[in-house]
Amino acid sequence: MTTEAGALQFASVSKAFGSRAVLKNVSFSVATGTAFVLLGRSGTGKSVTLKLLCGLLKADSGVIRVNGEDITKFDSNQLSSIRMHMGFLFQSAALFDSLSVGENVAFPLRRHSKKSDEEIRHQATSLLERVGLGKEYDSMPANLSGGMQKRAGLARALAVEPSILLVDEPSAGLDPITSNEIDQLLVDIKTDQHTTLVVVTHNMQSARRLADQMAFLDQGELLAQGTVEELERSEEPLVRDFMSSQQAG
Amino acid sequence: MLQRQFTLRGCDLNQTSLDPQPSLLQEGLSTAESGLSFLGGLSLFALETVRESVRRPFEGGEIIRQLAEIGWRSAPLILLSGLAVGGVLSMHTRSTLERFGAESMIPTALAFALVMETGPLVTGLLVAGRVGAGIGAALGGMRVTEQIDALESLAVNSLHYLAVTRIIACVIALPLLTVLMNFSGLLGSYLAESSIAATPFTHYFETAFSSMAFSDYVPPTLKTLVFGFIIGTTSSYLGYNATGGAEGVGRASTQSVVLSSVLLIVVNVILVRLIAFLFPVGGA
């Protein structure tokens, strides 16, 4: 499995919660400006991998490099400076329910830029328009559908113009059309802004649309890594089954 | 619960009837272990928030927002409760002092009772109920819906932004609400008294404070800074570490009220003794 340096590198990373090992000696790397899709069944450590990549969780062992820097030894201030260049779309969107949709998107701009209120509002509106929510600036998150919340979450993640975007289950709970729209947005972001994407999913259709490289996690171990075609030809029966079982769907 | 604790100690309750049953001592030890673990975690959390409170950014806007939520929105509750507490205290005090022909002492006795103990403690308990539950539920909800992780992912120190601001707001609000409680309590007592014996408003208040020195008033009011810290820290800690979905949020909210109130009452005993030691003339 390749572990050469890239925008992101995971080298022999292990993580356990109590006695339950979630990741066991996992290694992979993601080249700058590419999309890396992490596949696997539910509960195999995919979301944990994303949280480790931006320091929301601490690895028990191993090295995690972001743009060449090992973040496992970083304190909270150093992690904050790394996160300024990263965006994270959570599975549940995780919009702040006390703020309007527009203020959610404006939040990182208010925190990290010196722009005027007018400029921030304008930029937040532009981001919302980009994800098709231009008229929802003043709506509260609770009044949006799941798909709209996810798009708003994506707009918020893009506010800081991240060079690395981490995406957790972009199509979970969404209808196929909305799922396609979000996938297309992610492809556009990668192409237009040369953003590095790490996407966690168990939806093969979504994975095929997005992936330059894929990896398959099972019970905390990386069973296979490569392109879509390489995974389809994998010697691991579980990987082949997973790839073929959703080929039609 | 018992089974889980027992299993943790390497015993399986499902084996045979000869298996050891949890003794009272083991249950006591387990409870003590949980209590100490909670207090240890809470102490570390409190130290971390104190350290964070002196770091930039100072989150002035968020502190003001929390102050409005915690302080301003608690004011009607404190005002009404103060009127009721003052009225009831007045009725009890009158019935007692009448036996000794000391009705003229009613305003003074009430002022001392309210300012020295009733006002601060009742305010603390009311705020623990209203605000403690609110903070526990709000932060617990944010934790289980990944909003706290989202804050961190946006390069915002969630402990600083969510917990420190609420704790500072509690610390600032408690003394102000206590002053409101003291004066609304005296107003309630005046209204109760004036329904029995016509007393001029200014005369009542002058009499109430005639025997009270500044040092009698300030330490009991300032001790509520500690109450505010306890309420803010305990409820933030429980909400910040909530797990287990909606049930966990409910548990964090309930525990915030219960544990804040218990800690507040216990710490009050120490503070009363400390004030009596430091300000012997006041005689707290």
- Count of separate structural domains of chain B: 1
* Biggest pleated-sheet summary of chain B: none
Assembly state of the chains shown:
heterodimer
Mean pLDDT of chain B: 88
Give the helices and strands, then pairings:
The complex is a heterodimer of chains A (249) and B (284).
Chain A (H helix, E strand, L loop, with lengths): L7 E10 L2 E11 L4 E6 L5 H8 L7 E6 L2 E2 L5 H8 L2 E4 L11 H12 L4 H14 L15 H13 L5 E5 L7 H18 L2 E5 L3 H7 L2 E6 L2 E6 L1 H5 L4 H9 L4
Parallel strand pairs in A: 3-8, 3-9, 6-7, 7-8
Antiparallel strand pairs in A: 1-2, 1-4, 4-5, 9-10
Chain B lengths: L1 H7 L15 H30 L6 H11 L4 H23 L8 H39 L2 H7 L4 H37 L6 H10 L3 H27 L4 H34 L6
Helix pairs in contact in B: 2-7, 3-7, 4-5, 4-7, 5-7, 5-8, 5-9, 5-10, 7-9, 9-10
Overview of the structural elements:
The complex is a heterodimer of chains A (249) and B (284). Chain A is α/β, with parallel strands linked by helices and 249 residues long. Chain A has a domain of 59 residues. Chain A is built from nine helices and ten strands. In chain A, strands 6-7-8-3-9-10 form a six-stranded mixed sheet, sandwiched between helices. A four-stranded antiparallel sheet of chain A has the order 2-1-4-5, covered by helices on one side. Chain A is globular, with a radius of gyration of 18 Å. In chain A, 46% of the residues are buried. Chain B is mainly α and 284 residues long. Chain B is 79% helix and 0% strand. In chain B, α5 crosses α8 and α7 packs across α9. The chains are: A alpha/beta (249), B mainly alpha (284). Chains A and B meet through α2, β6 and α3 of A and α6 of B.
